[in-house]
Amino acid sequence: MSAPRIRLSDVEAFARWTPFVRPFRFGAVTVEGAFQAFVRVVVEVEGHGRASGMTAELMPPKWFDKRPDRTPDDTVADLAASLAGAVAQANALRRPDTAFGLHAELHGRQAAWARAADVTPLSASFGVAQIDKAVLDGLAKALDRSFVAVLAGNAVGIDTRLTPDLAQAAVEARLAALSPGRSIAVRHTVGMMDKVEGPDSLAGELDAADLRFFKIKLGGDPGADVRRLVEIAALLDGRGIDYRVTVDANEQYAPDALVDLFARTGAEPRLAGLVSRLLFVEQPFDRCVTFEQPLDAAVAARGVIIDEADDAYDAFPRARALGYSGVSSKCCKGFYKALLNAARAAVWNEEAGAQRHLVSAEDLTCQPGLAVQQDTAFVAALGLSHVERNGHHYVDGFGPAPETEAQAFRAAHPGLYAGGDRVRLAVASGRLDLSSLAAPGFASGATPDLSSLQPLSIVSAEGQPA
What we know:
By secondary structure, this protein is an alpha/beta fold. The chain contains 15 helices and 15 strands.
């Protein structure tokens, strides 16, 4: 499939305050609400006319930027600035290009802005990632094809200008291997403040859903984390579940402390079952020190991936050279980078004759509607079998969205959402039904109620509605 040239117009960004029903603690921050950003763009596709595309993504504090001198409010303001800047740059583009060509142009401009403004690369990429998703939605609609078909045929025009270590043939092969996933298992997040037993607890989640995959947040203190893991393992082992787990430190561990953690878990008989089911360790060290030294050999053998350190197109190869085995996929960081990292993993595994490298599917509280649909459908198309999903756990259904909006998404995707008092993500089976997400567009099917959204400028310094 050839990659048509695209001209962008009417690029707009909006926001909606989204309160949480329970606090979510990860790393050193506790989040009780956040703005969700929405982007709408009109694409004029050469030979195929015009179409509108949309996307959405939460803007949580202190994840894209954890520098101690930046307050949570500062980091939210940087995300809003990143998105506003990307919108302005997209509207200013005059020369039509392929979807990936437009991405590469915006990526370069945004990186230059971030360096001058002392904004982290992850924060800078947030704005471009939203434009990219909305453009893919519009392009697929204009071509009257699913996003998987558009990507598999490289109608977006992906090349290796940002990843010179890859051959174009390897990129084309990985794209051709994309396949629409019909369903995917939910990996349930166990936050640092989530109770294990009692009312509103992990035990209650197990009663309500057939969960088999879990992501456990760690706090950086080996003793406290081992005690927490023992409590969780007692529940899971006691239920007789054939489960799998990942652990995520969100940059809270020092290298010596992580070695200590694994020494303690290996010596604790009550953790034998959980340790044997550990799939990988996610982002243990501060992104600023991730690339300073190789992983301890015993730690590397557990399987360690980067997430917050995945802030550039060369991050995965650099991490691999230090013993890391994988990298996360999050559409908020950019789906083009995730696709190209998947191509790298495929090449490296073929060279090794074994599955030594992976791209994992992680979450940043993707909300029901466009955010969770697009991110989940994307990682399922990569062929991943499970995905961390936590937005439905920390927000009540569609949150403050109008009921008409929630019902529109439920009507478009009856297998993905459940009814009742509120429309919610249907997780009772432990799997998400993605069968309705293969229609033309980027896993959309419905659109947010624009009249219920506010201008992006209402994202205030306090991180709450002005």
